[in-house]
Amino acid sequence: MRSESDILIxxxxxxxxxxxxxxxxxxxxxxxxxxESDVAEGATKxxxxxxxxxxxxxxxxxxxxxxxxxxxxxPALCKELGVPYRRNGALVIGFDxxxxxxxxxxxxxxxxxxxxxxxxxxxDEALRLEPALSPDVLCALSVPESAIVSPYEMxxxxxxxxxxxxxxxxxxxxxRDVSALPDGRYAVVTDAGSCVCRVLIxxxxxxxxxxxxxxxxxxxxxxHRRGQYYLLDRADPQPFTRTVFQxxxxxxxxxxxxxxxxxxxxxxxxxxxxxxPLDTATTAGGLSEVLAxxxxxxxxxxxxxxxxxxxxxxxHLTGDDFIVGxxxxxxxxxxxxGIESPGLSSAPAIGAELSGMVxxxxxxxxxxxxxxxxxxxxxxxxxxxxERARAVQAxxxxxxxxxxxxxxxxxxxxxxxxxxxxxxxxDAVKRRTRAGMGRCQGGFCMPRVAAIIAEETGLPLQExxxxxxxxxxxxxxxSSFGKENADHE
Length: 489
Ligand SMILES: Cc1cc2nc3c(=O)[nH]c(=O)nc-3n(C[C@H](O)[C@H](O)[C@H](O)COP(=O)(O)OP(=O)(O)OC[C@H]3O[C@@H](n4cnc5c(N)ncnc54)[C@H](O)[C@@H]3O)c2cc1C
What we know:
By secondary structure, the protein is an alpha+beta fold.
């Protein structure tokens, strides 16, 4: 297949989706090429979900600027797109005088970056705010502007909005090669064919430097830094209201204990440099490091409530700052590379700024009208009894509970599959609806979810995957199995 577009974006993580949504406001054809089978399959699905207030990044860096701007855009954007977001505040805790010095530095950095409300609390005040904290705490930086968000739900909403406004998302299309054409355009080769575009935008996360190095003579070096996590089951009441960080190091922001927007608790991440940018394995060593550090913050931690573990890969450039904008010597090629933390917090700002640069380069005019993203109904899990009764009356498939752990209904699963960028795998449905996110991790609901996807898409059940690629759930039907055996006899 050969296609042409004004703009081609590589990667549908939070950065690619934010850029795509902003560009959908202009009169231009936009294609997003994604290696995986869904949006948010890279770092965007596996991070701490914190919208950082901006005290950690060094003043004057792009990380600091995009973090502050992006974080300020989150509340309105989440409201508009119906994405869960909560300004829960954070504490950065210290256990000794060395930590106090780090915390004083963070306070100074945060003030220089313009973060509001920062103050250093002494032990008793920190324990009054978060009684589950270790009594060994000496002091804490209080960060009232820190917030939590569902990172992948944000990316899905941005992608849906972009798709509704004309952006075309193409999945399972890994970009294998990129080159500049003599006429000033770019050619991109994927497993499915080739695309030619006037502007190429690299939002390829952990592959960002590799794509950059194919086009530019200025070499970039990227380190892939894995972070492993524990996810604990929902708890009511939550032991912590705020996100609690330990002091950061040069490798990362420090191990945290945080509530999620859905009421789970997250512990992690580690920071280990690895060779393979796709190696999202968890390891016994990594997970025990998380537990040991989390126990230090929260001595009451019980591992019995652990429901899953996962890891994500930070795309760390040796230059230690984001690269956002046009690339010298490559007219028409733009990039957002090295978007490690605080990349989630920064995404709305990077999207707005990068799209503005591209629009100016192409002299694009703005569309007169945009299609607003329809409001999604409240999750059945969160409805009152009266709301549930009304929902079931209007659509009886609300009366079919598919996921018992998270109370997700058939109606919600069908709606997720029908979204503008729909869910066609078990994990795609899971992240959009929470079916399979609970304590049994899909043990009960997975077959039913697969059957609903098959019904909605018209695909045979054997084609439904856990998460794209070769992750099929079934290898065949009993009748085809019998036939194969007969053929072999
Ligand atoms: C452990 C960890 C914790 C973090 N915590 C936070 C946090 O709390 N707050 C915060 O602000 N930030 C946090 N971050 C950073 C944040 O997750 C990232 O900055 C953000 O998700 C980056 O988004 P992205 O779209 O640039 O990259 P990604 O999400 O990695 O997306 C890149 C996309 O490009 C696709 N792709 C790659 N190569 C190709 C190719 N050749 N062809 C086609 N597609 C391709 C990938 O499949 C992927 O979907 C954390 C990161 C990690 C790893």
